[in-house]
Amino acid sequence: KKTFRVVVLPGDGIGPEVTAEAVRVLEIISAASQDIDIKLETHQFGGSAIDAVGEPLPAATLKACQEADAILMGSIGGPKWGVNSKVRPEQGLLSLRKALGLYANIRPANFASKSLLANSPLKPTVAEGVDIIVVRELIGGVYFGARKELGTGPDEDAAWDTMVYSIPEVQRITRVAAQIALQANPPLAIHSIDKANVLASSRLWRKVVTETLEKEYPQLKLDHHLVDSASMLIVANPRKLNGVILTENLFGDILSDESSVIPGSLGLLPSASLAGAPSVADALDPAFKATSGLYEPIHGSAPDIAGQGIANPIGTILSAAMLLRYSLGLEKYAQAIENAVRKALDDKAAGGHELRTADLGGSVKTKEMGDKIVEIL
Amino acid sequence: KKTFRVVVLPGDGIGPEVTAEAVRVLEIISAASQDIDIKLETHQFGGSAIDAVGEPLPAATLKACQEADAILMGSIGGPKWGVNSKVRPEQGLLSLRKALGLYANIRPANFASKSLLANSPLKPTVAEGVDIIVVRELIGGVYFGARKELGTGPDEDAAWDTMVYSIPEVQRITRVAAQIALQANPPLAIHSIDKANVLASSRLWRKVVTETLEKEYPQLKLDHHLVDSASMLIVANPRKLNGVILTENLFGDILSDESSVIPGSLGLLPSASLAGAPSVADALDPAFKATSGLYEPIHGSAPDIAGQGIANPIGTILSAAMLLRYSLGLEKYAQAIENAVRKALDDKAAGGHELRTADLGGSVKTKEMGDKIVEIL
Ligand SMILES: CC(C)[C@H](C(=O)O)[C@@H](O)C(=O)O
Ligand SMILES: CC(C)[C@H](C(=O)O)[C@@H](O)C(=O)O
């Protein structure tokens, strides 16, 4: 039996409620399987860690994360630790990403079930068939470049941040995008997004993406969009960006959030943040496996509904599926979860259970949704 | 009779076709009015200027723009002068903005006529009543900070850009947003957008916006959104951002384009880029008047349909209305144009002419639309 260590970081707000359901799903898979054993351990992280020990990413948590095969996170933050606090939950997340080298953020925006089309803010004709995977560079760019705060140094009354990229940083994220494109048959198209008509870092981005794909993955289709024009396309005609959106940290932050509202509820969507450097050799092995990975739903800690047991656990459960796929290499279990989620959501007419949590206009509770998915599995 | 000099920069692609109609509208107003005389002169700009004299912003054009009361532009750019060309049309636009000090970009996203709701990619229930004015800082931030290209200097294999803001830069754009908010009755809410949980320049932004409004415009409502969350809201629930969106250059580039697809066609929307510094004293005078202004439709040069006479001239005609409002101080003529445009677009059932150009799914030509608006005026 192969043993995997998975660290669980429930975090703040609804985090503990939604991770509880995803943990049950992982436990059931571990129990049912002949050949794997998933060992789960819970650690403090985010605002609750600030309250408990004064910092969002305690050393013990970081150590556990470094030693684990993968990390499942809930959500962090809340008004209690607002923008003006000295120590903030988000700093813990940014530090964790950097410490583990999680440079590849993967965020699908698609319909877990066709029956959710009615929930989209877009017209059904516009939203139907949208199937986008955003691959966002996560530990470079303006997030981690040099910066100067107001009131310090020379130029007291100014503040600045540096948006910086190097060739190897862009190469490795391009390769991750390529590996993900190759996992589909036929391979997905790659849409690289930048602001090359203004920014030097974007001109580097465009050049390196183009050369890396031409040289190492000539079979993949590539096009380029300016970020302003991509932000329009995501609303006006998102199917045009079906496939992989490949972009830098800040643009990825904005565009992945923008595209994630298409499926109608943030509660539905998972994410993965991966380390591990696919080299040219990996091009021969589409089953790219991450050396470290953090998996979390894309929604926030939703303090307004925390503690009520009504949050949608699907984003976290689908994050657990991504964990099985990318970190543990267990594609068949990942698909089993995705199918179970689809069945829980599908209309009765399509043979599903038509469960709807509050975010989807229903009254099904967090635990009921978890129960049903576990039952289907 | 008061005389105004207006420079017209038709530019590239459909630019000459759409400016021709807006020029007719300005001419009719000038001819009909007892007290004003608008003198129009045309100059070379953009790709066509590159072809003619080797640079996108010839000295004669810049001089004319500097001496004019206002500038009406069509659109620039095209595949002929692509991202890899040495001299590019967009450089001319960026230089013109900087040279004239056009720091305040104003972009409304609303429905020129209720009958256009059906054209929105958003569900009617989501799009109805959206009425947003984006106020974007236009000559600061990462557009004009120091940068380093790939292959130069130390760190040969890296490239960077600097996102930089100073206190006075943020103060003046905040005041423009406030003046615009005060032009409505009751005053509009101000939604300031930044990424203060990551960026130093955004922390400065948030602090200065808050302090300026608290001190100088305490009657205005202000809230703050992170740029990722704002990009979601614009799709999921845009009415929540009704009022003024106040943001920095790059975020404004992305968010103004994103919100501009709500009304269903880019062909409908105008923009203004203003210089002139409203001081604290102006707070007493809501009729803020720009010292220099560039007005242009938000759409591009659309090379695919150029020369066919089918482009929608409304974005440019409404830009002429903004020109009358902000640069010439002729509010009543601005409103007359806006009413004429509404009438041309309104359903027959609502007493309108229901004209639809190709972008709106119809077959009305550029000139026919111009004819009708001139006729109504
Ligand atoms: C919390 C914040 C720093 C973070 C980011 O901007 O990366 C979040 O928006 C995300 O996308 O995970
Ligand atoms: C052409 C380009 C440089 C410009 C910008 O990014 O400002 C355009 O997108 C705009 O918004 O006017």
Automatic annotation (TrEMBL), chains A, B:
<keyword id="KW-0432">Leucine biosynthesis</keyword>
<comment type="pathway">
    <text>Amino-acid biosynthesis; L-leucine biosynthesis; L-leucine from 3-methyl-2-oxobutanoate: step 3/4.</text>
</comment>
<keyword id="KW-0479">Metal-binding</keyword>
<dbReference type="InterPro" id="IPR024084">
    <property type="entry name" value="IsoPropMal-DH-like_dom"/>
</dbReference>
<dbReference type="InterPro" id="IPR004429">
    <property type="entry name" value="Isopropylmalate_DH"/>
</dbReference>
<feature type="domain" description="Isopropylmalate dehydrogenase-like">
    <location>
        <begin position="5"/>
        <end position="373"/>
    </location>
</feature>
<keyword id="KW-0560">Oxidoreductase</keyword>
<dbReference type="Pfam" id="PF00180">
    <property type="entry name" value="Iso_dh"/>
</dbReference>
<comment type="similarity">
    <text>Belongs to the isocitrate and isopropylmalate dehydrogenases family.</text>
</comment>
<dbReference type="GO" id="GO:0000287">
    <property type="term" value="F:magnesium ion binding"/>
</dbReference>
<dbReference type="InterPro" id="IPR019818">
    <property type="entry name" value="IsoCit/isopropylmalate_DH_CS"/>
</dbReference>
<comment type="function">
    <text>Catalyzes the oxidation of 3-carboxy-2-hydroxy-4-methylpentanoate (3-isopropylmalate) to 3-carboxy-4-methyl-2-oxopentanoate. The product decarboxylates to 4-methyl-2 oxopentanoate.</text>
</comment>
<dbReference type="GO" id="GO:0009098">
    <property type="term" value="P:L-leucine biosynthetic process"/>
</dbReference>
<keyword id="KW-0028">Amino-acid biosynthesis</keyword>
<keyword id="KW-0460">Magnesium</keyword>
<dbReference type="GO" id="GO:0051287">
    <property type="term" value="F:NAD binding"/>
</dbReference>
<keyword id="KW-0464">Manganese</keyword>
<comment type="subunit">
    <text>Homodimer.</text>
</comment>
<keyword id="KW-0520">NAD</keyword>
<dbReference type="GO" id="GO:0003862">
    <property type="term" value="F:3-isopropylmalate dehydrogenase activity"/>
</dbReference>
<dbReference type="GO" id="GO:0005829">
    <property type="term" value="C:cytosol"/>
</dbReference>
<protein>
    <recommendedName>
        <fullName>3-isopropylmalate dehydrogenase</fullName>
        <ecNumber>1.1.1.85</ecNumber>
    </recommendedName>
</protein>
<keyword id="KW-0100">Branched-chain amino acid biosynthesis</keyword>
